[in-house]
Amino acid sequence: MDTTPSPDASPSAGATGPGAGAPAAVTAAEPTAPAAPAGLTAVGTAEEPARARSARTALAAALAGRAPARAPLSAIAVATVAGAAGLLLLVVIGAVLDQPVLIPPLAASAALVFAAPSLPLAQPRGVVGGQLVSASVGLLAVAVAGDSLWTAAVAGGLAVGAMALARTPHSPAAATAVIAVLADPDPALFLPLLLLGALVLVAVGVAAGRTGKTARYPVYWW
After folding, report:
1. pLDDT band of 44, cuts 50, 70, 90
2. Its pTM surpasses 0.85
3. Which of 29, 55, 170, 175 has the fewest CB atoms within 10 Å around its CB?
4. Residue 218 and residue 117 in contact, taking contact as beta carbons nearer than 8 Å
5. Who's near 141: CB < 8 A, 6+ residues apart?
6. Whole-Å CA distances, 79 to 8, 72, 84, 93, 216
């Protein structure tokens, strides 16, 4: 009898041992997040300070605006001291004369003479001429229409045109026209005191300009 095993016979056929013929166990892998590309974290960290610097630079530029650069501290100090000295001198003169010499428009004139001595508005022709022209407009207006706010407003506007025609531009002087209407002073007293105050400011401005710390003043006299 032929005892040769059949070619189709499987070694596991008929096996009866424990787990015989059971499929191999497969362990399912848990899903994991994809790994970040190499160097991405380092690049992101490096970009943060650059963005912060860029934001700070943009903010600083926005706050600075397009205004001129700040003047040297020495120039600011001279302008401040000269401005205070000029206005105090007006107070002293007023006390001696027992008349108010310091009026608000002259304080505004001082700001131009000492803080912006190179501007046309700060030159002696504008400071002295503009104040006198505007005061005359205000005195004429109050004489014609009375001391009302309406008259004061018209006088301020007319003063702007009068200064332009006379080539004596000086923005603070428009307020002098308004004061001339509202206060209705005696022209024989008001005009000479105004002239004196303007001349004092110009004289102090000339002295400040000779210190070498600020721009030369005046650029022109007339």
Report:
1. low
2. no
3. 29
4. yes
5. 151, 152, 154, 155, 158, 177, 180, 181
6. 115, 11, 9, 21, 12
